[in-house]
């Protein structure tokens, strides 16, 4: 009897052992994440010229899996009535999501997410501003992305307030912290935070996120860079292994350097 049951007993222990083994969140090869403020495709040295091919070349050279874009036009007069997120995504063969922040110049202005992996759902989340504020509305563009191993990644692109006063950025940072806590799905938020690392807004975000860099290189302006305001932030509720982090010293396509990290 025992000999007959032995294969079943071994099978039971094997299944139990396998079931207890945690499955990796990221694919074995890891993922490469990029953030890039593209200045609506206008090289700062070229007045009103729109050069989306240059933006696509910069992104292609890094071969990222997921990209957060800021300052993206959609059907504006200044950009030749082009859906910039769609045009860039098509050049790169990537999925995309456009997150409108505001009406602008007969079209829209906002952010975008590009992904090599399928985008399962998206949302545009309004970020708060002080009641007396008269500037641009700010948003979080959010996408749930299905990774090759079946895991789901929550990914966001942001462009926080650029005013000299830090009041709005602080409100927006606290809102991002609350949005993170709404779901358990691990999240990465990347973008132009318009805030240096020691600012109060970034201190708020530091409570909930880990940076992909320790000593973060300057990201703006491209000719004489003097401050870091573009970041990739990693949900602290998950353990991330940062294989590499790089600020790409590309000086033509935009007024910001793109930032790239590999997570494994």
In short:
The protein has 264 residues and is of the alpha+beta class. 23% of the residues lie in helices and 33% in strands. A hairpin with a 2-residue loop joins strand 3 and strand 4.
Report the principal-axis shape.
globular
Name of the CATH first level: Alpha Beta
Number of DSSP strands? 12
How is the main sheet built?
A: 6 strands, mixed
Q: Within the largest sheet, what's the order of strands?
A: 3-4-2-1-12-11
The helix/strand class is alpha+beta
- Structural Rg: 21 Å
CATH architecture: 4-Layer Sandwich
Terminal-residue CA separation: 48 Å
| Percent helix range | 10-25%
What's the structural domain tally? 1
Q: How many individual helices?
A: 5
N-to-C order of helices and strands: HEHEHEEEEEHEHEEEE
The name of the CATH topology is Deoxyribonuclease I, Chain A
Approximately what portion of the residues adopt beta-strand conformation?
25-35%
Overall average residue pLDDT: 93
As residue ranges, the low-confidence spans are 13-20
According to CATH, the homologous superfamily is Endonuclease/exonuclease/phosphatase
């Amino acid at each position: 009897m025992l000999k007959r049951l032995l294969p079943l007993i071994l099978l039971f222990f094997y299944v139990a052992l396998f079931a207890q083994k945690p499955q990796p969140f990221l694919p074995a090869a890891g993922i490469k994440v990029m953030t890039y403020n593209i200045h609506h495709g206008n090289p700062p040295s070229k007045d009103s010229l729109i050069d989306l091919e240059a933006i696509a070349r910069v992104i292609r050279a890094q071969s990222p899996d997921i990209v957060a874009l800021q300052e993206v036009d959609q059907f504006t007069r200044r950009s030749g009535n082009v859906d910039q997120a769609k045009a860039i995504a098509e050049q790169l063969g990537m999925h995309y999501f456009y997150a409108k922040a505001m009406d602008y110049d007969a079209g829209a202005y906002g952010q975008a997410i590009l992904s090599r992996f399928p985008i399962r759902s998206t949302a545009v989340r309004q970020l708060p501003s002080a009641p007396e504020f008269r500037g641009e509305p700010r948003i979080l563009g959010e996408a749930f992305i299905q990774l090759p191993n079946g895991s789901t990644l929550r990914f966001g692109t942001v462009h926080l307030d650029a005013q000299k006063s830090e009041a709005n950025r602080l409100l927006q940072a606290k809102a991002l912290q609350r949005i993170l806590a709404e779901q358990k799905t691990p999240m990465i938020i990347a973008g132009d935070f318009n805030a240096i690392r020691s600012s109060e807004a970034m201190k708020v975000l530091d409570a909930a996120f880990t940076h992909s860099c320790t000593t973060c290189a300057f990201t703006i302006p491209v000719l004489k860079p003097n401050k870091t305001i573009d970041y990739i932030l990693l949900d602290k509720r998950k353990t991330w292994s940062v294989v590499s982090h790089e600020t790409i010293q590309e000086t033509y396509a935009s007024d910001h350097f793109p930032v790239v990290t590999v997570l494994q």
